[in-house]
Specification:
This protein has about 130 residues and is mostly beta strands. The protein has no helices and ten strands. About 0% of the residues lie in helices and about 45% in strands. The chain starts with 6 loop residues before the first strand and ends in a 10-residue tail after the last strand.
Length: about 130
């Protein structure tokens, strides 16, 4: 929830539709928002909004299967490529947490941890 009148939730894709469930709260009702096609059994498991025009959701696309990361730009949810992960690491992503618009973390229950944001290079000591 960003405010009492702006909230988001994600979930399972109905087998007949094959589209991830994304719903938005506007203060009076929940409405469905088009999500990515994820195949029967695909889903989004976590959503984190940094603002009304910036949000992230993660889950699994069963048409592969492949890890799934999607981004909200204030208008639509778009799939973000998860490369350079090899196909053998295509796992269900369970949770996303953003420290800011350009700094966040994603985890899976298989131990995969992804970081989005600026890289830091450790200093060397002698």
């Amino acid at each position: 929830m960003l405010s009492p009148t702006n909230g988001w939730a994600v979930g399972f894709a109905p087998a007949a539709v094959g589209q991830a469930t994304i719903i938005h709260w506007d203060g009076s009702q929940w409405t469905s928002v088009p999500g990515p096609t994820v195949g029967a059994g695909g889903y989004l498991s976590s959503v984190y909004m940094t603002s009304a025009a910036d949000g992230w959701a993660v889950g699994l696309d069963t048409t592969g299967p492949k890890s799934l990361i999607v981004h909200w730009d204030g208008i639509t949810w778009n799939v973000v490529a998860t490369l350079p992960l090899p196909p053998t690491m295509a796992v269900s992503l369970n949770s996303v947490f953003m420290l800011g618009p350009l700094d966040g973390w994603i985890v899976s229950n298989q131990g995969l941890i992804l970081h989005y944001g600026p890289e830091s290079v450790p200093g060397t000591t002698t």
